[in-house]
Amino acid sequence: MLDFNPHKTNCTSCAACYSICPIHCISMEKDAEGFMYPYASDTCIHCGLCEEICPAVHHTHQEESFDQQCFAATHKDSNIWQRSTSGGAFASICEAWSDQDTMIVGAAWDGLRVHHITVIGASNILPLHKSKYIASDIEDTFIQIREYLELGKKVVFSGTPCQVAGLHAFLQNKWPNLLTVDFICHGTGSPDVFAECVKQISKQFGKEVTHYEFRAKPSQIHEENYISKIQSGNSKLYITNDPYIQLFLKQDCLRPSCGANCMYRVKKRPSDITIADFKGLHQIFPELVGNKHNYSTIVFNTPKGASLLPKLQQNMHMLPCSIDDIIRFNPLFGQQTKASEHRDSFFAEFTKHPAKAIEMFTTPYLPLKRRLRTRIYYFLPAWLQKRLYNLACLIKKSNK
Questions:
Q1: What are the structural domains, with CATH classification, of the chain?
Q2: Which of 52, 275, 331, 366 could bridge 89 with an S-S bond, Cβ 3.0-4.6 Å?
Q3: What would the DSSP string read from start to end of 98-112?
Q4: Helix residue ranges per DSSP H, the chain
Q5: C-beta of residue 75 within 8 angstroms of C-beta of residue 84
Q6: What secondary structure letter does DSSP report for 261?
């Protein structure tokens, strides 16, 4: 940790300090929980640039003058909707802002690891689709963005609110050719915890998991919220009660700066546009009851973001709503959550015995094809779920 920001609850790993260092003496290193933090080597010249631009030290939001505009939206192209987590908002925004030379930056899978990458042109954003509930490494993308902006070319950056704040802090000046997109964020989970959960899933699956997808959309079911798709070679399986998602939703595996310590769960965001799943769709728009399509939340936070509305309306069905509607059904947009009661005890066990910690704090997954049994199982107490699972394993073993 850097001397001016020594507390892990204040560091989001936005990488602004790493990116701004003129002699590259700052490195991002993983701690025992699996999260990255900045450290300066002995070659530090004490120029003070890292402290000067740190968004945790100099915390700012958008100006209060702009009246945010909010919409529920879904893409008109069913193919784009199908490969998106919710309504296809990110794809539409990239289409609306981009030309063929636009750099688009966002989180992508690298095997079972998540990091930020750059692609050129909206037609190449497929790796950036879908939710990834794992901390994403920024690496050198801030530096690449600055170089591209200096050439006079357009950039779209997508990330968590703290990553957007880190990019703005690093760039220091406002760039008219930069569009920033954040999302209503639950927090970022530990990559090491995710890796251990994948190991446990692989054991139960009987094959090594090579590909993973959160919030999958199996064609036979759209109403399930947290379905994961795991794949090994040509074998794939949709699962519910994903152990990693269990830990993530309970906030047991989140970064210390997330959850109750997040500085960005406020109405005024650091980005031009905020996107998310649209929750409470049928309560707010009862005329959509029976519609199987997911919708996205789109909130314009700046005039630059709002300037895309006419183009977005060409590609999306857009329904205006109020910001109070969004907060009512998705309170993480504007208010903090309580800290997890079990986070510290989970990580205390995880740092010593990773597999044991996963077993203690989660229940085994079930294949989605057993839909009725899956739903009944999901709502049983955790202790009963484990007993039923162990009993099923014994029966299966005795039948061999």
A1: 69-188+254-333 (3.40.640), 191-253+339-398 (no CATH)
A2: 275
A3: --TT-EEEEEEEETT
A4: 16-20, 49-53, 78-82, 89-97, 141-150, 161-171, 191-205, 243-249, 281-284, 303-306, 309-315, 323-329, 343-350, 354-361, 371-378, 382-398
A5: yes
A6: G
Q: Are 274 and 330 in contact (CB under 8 A)?
A: no
- How many Å apart are CA 76 and CA 95, to the nearest integer? 13
Residues of the chain with pLDDT under 70: 60-64, 81-85, 217-225, 368-383, 385-386, 388-390, 392-393, 396-400
Rounded distance between C-alpha atoms, residue 259 and residue 334, angstroms = 13
Residue 225: its pLDDT value, please?
65
Q: pLDDT at position 371, please?
A: 46
Supply φ then ψ for residue 56, to 5 degrees.
-75, -25
Distance CA 185, CA 192 (A): 20
Instruction: Check: CB of residue 55 under 8 Å from CB of residue 92.
Output: no
DSSP result, 184-231: -----B-HHHHHHHHHHHHHHHTS---EEESS---TT-SS-SS-EEEE
Report the pLDDT value the prediction gives residue 365, as an integer from 0 to 100: 78
